[in-house]
Write a structure and sequence with these properties.
Elements lengths: L2 E8 L2 E12 L2 E9 L5 H18 L1 H4 L3 E5 L2 H10 L1 E3 L5 E4 L13 E6 L2 H9 L4 E8 L2 E7 L6 E6 L23 E4 L7 H16 L4 E11 L2 E9 L5 E10 L7 H8 L1
Parallel strand pairs: 3-4, 7-10, 11-14
Antiparallel strand pairs: 1-2, 2-3, 4-6, 5-6, 8-9, 9-10, 12-13, 13-14
């Protein structure tokens, strides 16, 4: 672990101080955060949020999508939530989610999903803080563009007109079919523990929408080349499979590709 200290200045005067502690290659903790000079509450919150966004863009572990975390008492939790932190999957640990302004454009790269019930799907993705930034019609179909402040992955939901809807689930549920298998959402910036994060999603889904998420594969550790990750698979309302992935570590020693290992064994 190593410490980092950032200062914010206003008219050449220091106004805020942020101290960080590197925890792992995908995790940084806030060790201390304070406003030095007396500012109005609204002003101090703006300064602090901009500092947090600055470190998210410039600290190596965060620039690659790591989590900026803060431990909090019940009193601190309210303050952290106001600054843009959200529950992370571990009790009393919050992750900084408001990494950019919701109105800020993040490019046109996105995943487009055909759905039968666009409102229900908007509800589903809101559990991951996705918000509708625009709605429009395309060839008569209702569409919604969703974005989230902690990821560059935008979503375009396209509602299949009722007259064209057929019963059945998405073809991705068939392991023998070809084409796109699932949509992966990298929740590393929002998550410190995937089991707890999924439990929190379930709790909020029941509280807000009165229904549980369908979990296809429970959280487990998986190797992807040199990447050690936690992954889980859930199903969106209209059948699309969503993989939740949290990066845990990157192995530094060279590994023989699995295909070559299998060939050697044969």
């Amino acid at each position: 672990s190593s410490a980092l200290v950032f200062m914010a200045f206003l008219a050449a005067e220091p106004v805020a101080r942020l101290s960080l502690m590197r925890h792992s290659e995908y995790c940084v903790y806030v060790r201390d955060l304070r406003v030095i000079n007396c500012l109005e509450q609204d002003e101090s919150e703006v300064v602090v949020v901009e500092m947090l966004r600055h470190v998210s863009r410039n600290v190596a572990e965060l620039r690659v999508g790591g989590a900026l975390l803060a431990r909090a008492s019940s009193i601190d939790a309210t303050k952290l939530t106001r600054l843009g932190f959200a529950t992370s999957g571990l009790a009393d640990v919050y992750a900084f989610a408001r990494r950019r302004d919701a109105r800020e454009s993040f490019g046109a790269s996105h995943a487009a999903i055909h759905v039968y019930d666009i409102e229900k799907c908007i509800d589903f993705f809101s559990l991951l803080e996705y918000r509708t930034t625009s709605t429009f019609l395309s060839s008569g179909a209702r569409c919604a563009w969703l974005s989230v402040p902690w990821s560059s992955l935008a979503l375009e939901l396209i509602e299949v007109p009722r007259v064209l809807q057929t019963k059945g689930v998405a073809p991705t549920s068939d392991p023998s079919s070809v084409g796109i298998k699932h949509l992966c959402v990298d929740v590393t910036p929002r998550c410190s523990y995937l089991h707890g994060f999924l439990e929190d999603l379930q709790r909020r889904s029941e509280e807000q929408f009165g229904r549980r998420l369908r979990v296809l594969t429970a959280p487990h550790q998986q190797m992807m080349g040199s990447l050690v990750a936690e992954v889980a698979l859930i199903r969106a309302p209209d059948g699309v499979e969503i993989e939740l992935l949290r990066r845990a570590a990157e192995l530094t020693h060279e590994m023989l590709p699995d295909w070559e290992v299998q060939t050697a064994e044969e």
